[in-house]
Write a structure and sequence with these properties.
The chain has 262 residues and is an alpha/beta fold. It is 44% helix and 16% strand. It has helices at residues 29-32, 56-59, 62-76, 88-99, 130-142, 144-156, 162-173, 177-188, 216-225, 241-244, 246-261; strands at 2-5, 11-15, 37-40, 81-86, 104-110, 203-210, 230-237. Strands 1-3-2-4-5-6-7 form a 7-stranded mixed sheet. α3 packs across α4 and α5 (130-142) runs antiparallel to α8. The longest helix has 16 residues, at 246-261. The chain is globular, with a radius of gyration of 17 Å. The relative contact order is 0.17.
Length: 262
């Protein structure tokens, strides 16, 4: 865990998405730490986390990651935090805030998706068919390094900036393939649509104007299901605006966090 910024400032807790680590936040931290106490961490199995703490049983579903976030909040013991969850960590934040709302001053759900698979029976569009996800998981499990090199540029978007896709590829490749397999299944097979209504804390949904992983319909769905939430569309391409549009991302987070601290 890394703590930076103002020791007397409101706490912002940054949680990264699948295949990433806390380094993915490095471009937004300098803005946030001017006014806030910023806490970063690596999910178990990623970055500089203790790999011995990982077990398939605990992390086969998002609840394992949820319990970790709640434990971090207890260890910090700094009052309610603004939790910023990127991608799958957005739903981790939803689950955590539903279980112990008193620990959260607010949620920022950055490019969230409560379900990646389309549900034609209800008209829900997640962006992927069940066959798409089956193929994605099969490719990941059979050749993780090859999957990483192919999918990272798609997830990142911004083909005119290949260095961003390469950074995400490198991040994926630093994750143990077995841990990545389990986390991928927990991520892409999850369905947290019914959990959204249980959120009672102030919530900002920040989506990108062009995102192959979480299309605009998903952000609109999350906004409609979380009472009193706010939806903003960042002028950003891809699924990782903290890298592709760090200025706009940091400003959105800071403005929301400042509002919850009033």
């Amino acid at each position: 865990m890394t703590v930076t910024g103002r020791t007397d400032g409101p706490v912002i807790l940054l949680a990264h998405g699948f295949g990433c680590d806390q380094n993915m936040w490095r471009l937004v931290v300098p803005v946030l730490e001017r006014d806030f106490r910023v806490v970063l961490f690596d999910h178990v199995g990623t970055g500089r986390s203790d790999l011995s703490a990982w077990s398939e049983e605990r992390y086969a579903a998002l609840d394992g990651y949820t319990q970790d976030v709640l434990e971090i909040c207890r260890v910090l013991d700094a009052g309610p935090v603004v939790f910023v969850g990127h991608s799958v960590s957005a739903m981790v934040g939803v689950l955590a805030a539903a279980q112990e709302p008193e620990r959260f001053a607010g949620l920022v759900l950055l490019t969230p998706s409560p379900r990646y698979i389309d549900d034609p029976a209800t008209g829900y569009r997640g962006g992927f068919s069940a066959e798409d996800i089956d193929e994605l998981l099969h490719s990941l499990e059979s050749n993780y390094l090859g999957w990483s090199a192919t999918m990272a540029p798609v997830i990142m978007g911004n083909p005119e900036r290949p260095e961003l896709g390469q950074e995400l590829t490198n991040s994926f490749c630093r994750t143990d393939p077995e841990i990545a397999r389990v986390f991928a299944r927990a991520t892409f097979l999850s369905d947290n649509r019914d959990d959204l209504a249980a959120v009672t804390v102030p919530t900002l949904i920040a989506q990108c104007s062009n995102d192959a992983i979480a299309p605009p319909e998903v952000g609109a769905f999350v906004h409609a299901r979380i009472p009193g939430s706010e939806l903003v569309t960042l002028t950003a391409t891809g699924h990782c605006p903290q890298l592709s549009a760090p200025g706009a991302t940091a400003e959105a987070i800071a403005a929301f966090a400042a509002g919850t601290a009033r």
